[in-house]
Task: structure prediction
Amino acid sequence: MTQLHNEKDNQATYSVVIGRVSTEDDDRILETLESLYNQEEDHSVEVLLADRINDHVSQRIKNDFPDTRIIECSPNTDLPTMRTMATKQASGEFVLVTEDHCVPPRDWLKQFTRAFAEHPEASAIGGSVVNGVTDTGLDWATFLCEYAPMSPPIESGPTPNLAGMNVAYRREIFKNVDEQVLTSGFWETTLHPLLHKQGHTLIADDNVRIFHCKKFSLGLFLRQRFVYSRYYAGIRFTPQQKAKRLMYAMASVALPPLLTFRFFQNARHKASVRSHLAKAAPYLVLFYLVWGIGEAWGYLFGPRDALQEIE
Result:
């Protein structure tokens, strides 16, 4: 049974950081917390939940999981900033980051303990992501569009790329990271490249797995795919680089067929997703089309408030 961290405990081994941003399937966080507080073996853990929703589910969390430290955020706070706020309050030796719709298995902390014991040189360790919502073709498409490269099996070993919702960092690494790096974007594209450049060892471990359990409506996923693509493209160049922005916007026309080809080329080698490709394919084609439109829009008009809209 997991030991809850409180003021009488010594320093927590694990600080789990979660940003609560989901507007659909918003009570999935209760499953996340239930699993975190009922992990195999004895682990000292504190859960830091940055919450920009602040609704009836927030009250349920306070009632049912009183040891969860809730950090109330304004509704327009973006997810990287929320994670940074929570991380600054972490006291554990390791800071684990997941999302409010991801449910860890009961051996999640045990697997991280094993992985860091096997790789004492590692500054961060990340695992694979398993689809936990499998009812329809849409469920598979929303998962595969985002997480197919991180679905098992992934190649274990040193890597510059780690899944952002199934990752643990040694807390000490944050002392030498400028806060702007943490708040300027998602850590897969800001923090991880910096750590790799600084010579830190990042390790992927296929046995550290988490279930991605968000059930999207088609409308929400299309909006999310658009705003994320707009955000990504919008920050790549400065507003003054108009020629480059225009050139890349025009090149975005080729993005949907290219993404479709790459996806099916890579996915066919993964037995865990191969059997679901046919029913997911029509949605994936639509998602890649919106992906291309979002990037073109971002190049032309910048990110605006896209980062704050991402959940």
About this structure: The chain is about 45% helix and 20% strand. Residues 71 and 156 are 34 Å apart (CA to CA). The mean pLDDT is 94.
